[in-house]
Input
Amino acid sequence: MIRIDRQKCVGCGGCVDLCPRAAIGLYEDFALINSALCLECKTCVKVCPMKAPQEI
Amino acid sequence: MTNAYDLIIVGAGPAGLMAAKTAGEHGLKVALLERKKNITDINRACSMMIVTLTGCYLSDRVSINSRDQRLCFPAYGFTIPYEGEHQNFYSWSIYSYKGNKIQLGDYEKNEAMGDKGRISATYDKGALLKSLMKECLKYGVDVFPGHNVIGTQTNNGQVTVYTREGTKFKGTFVIGADGRASRLAKTLGKNKDRIYYGTSTSYGFEMKGVEPSEKYALFQIFLGEKTPMRIWMTPRADGETYFPFISCTHPGADVKGAFERFTQQGHFASWFKNAETIRPLCIEGNMYSHIIDPYKDQVLLVSDAVWCQEAEMTGAIISGWKAANAVKYALTEGNISREGVFVYLDWWKKEIIDKLDHRDMIRNAVMPYCLTVDDIDYLLSKVTKTLRSILDPYETPKIVAGAMAEIMPIVSKERPDVFEKLKRMKTDPLEEIFKGCKRSGFPNNMRSS
Output
């Protein structure tokens, strides 16, 4: 499962844009993954320079 | 139909806010949806340069009316409020990692001339959004922050906009101003025919106390990293903060480490010895060609949603304005169709598709893919004269290319290997050059609706 570390997320929305499943939204200006839609393709993990999306 | 809007705008950046304000001025009933909660907070990397105060971009030259706090678009014939600061910059330096450079604009001469000598200025995007938002509220635009739009559906002449939050909005037209990786462009199938080049990352820090070689200048620095990376840096509109950031087209590259090496070691470390970090900023996005046809089922796509790379603030404002005008025209005429919004579609074809070759824009980034960092250092050391400086993503590369052409006789003699690479740089297909930038999982076309 992948979740966003809010300590690291700056809310740029890049992962929201690039998620192939549209599984990520911006909530309260942070990225939030909808685990029901997430395929764990790790696109967000690969693209985020802040390393905010983390596998748990 | 009682709760329906004339126009629903998705995305409250410069383009969306401009479209909302314009439609409001036309007396339309407008909804503006934005996924961010705090619309005027800027949380992503943006260099905030005004393209262009000196050249001609999209057939206009922007100017600043400081007296009345407005940005003027004289060729298009409108002005917008801008209650923010700006910071002129007077030269543009393109550096190699060792500190050799091409200089566009004579800094001292230009600075002495003040506004007349600037190559452009940086603006405050947050202030611009605030100024436009004020206008939107004045004209009765309904603003909905915190709404993640996921798609649209058009039935019987009405478009329904769906959000992740479960809300629905109904309207006659929709303007999709949802940015570079537009969800609407994707769900409408508009990305299918685009050429995809790669995915780019920008990563940097807002800083105070930076001491560059010229105080108010634009810097572009080729880093001595294995992965092609460039630093861009300008002063912010306040004249004190700087925003150096790495631009890289390899997703997952170690931009964090590269940024640390850039500010702590090597030729440029002295610029940062007294620097204080304010906050990190980043953004990631796909590099696509323009969308040829920005219309489908009563949805008009504008600005970065349809552009190759970035529309810049100027392109955002103009395309938002054009699209809102087109919607007003169609509604007045009662022509709810592609033909109805011809004002926008004609402009798009004439100004963008017929005039700007997106490959010129993409080709700006190829140099570090075809040459080594030391090849680049060698080339930059050979151009010694100061070049003409304007800030234009299509014109400036021509100026640099002209200077390169002049040194080619020397390069062909001294470094035939570099000469050969430069020839290939001009002729090799871009897809070939950027082959290494494509990664599995990109582009994300798995989801079509």
Q: What stands out?
A: Residues 312-333 of chain B form the longest helix (22 residues).
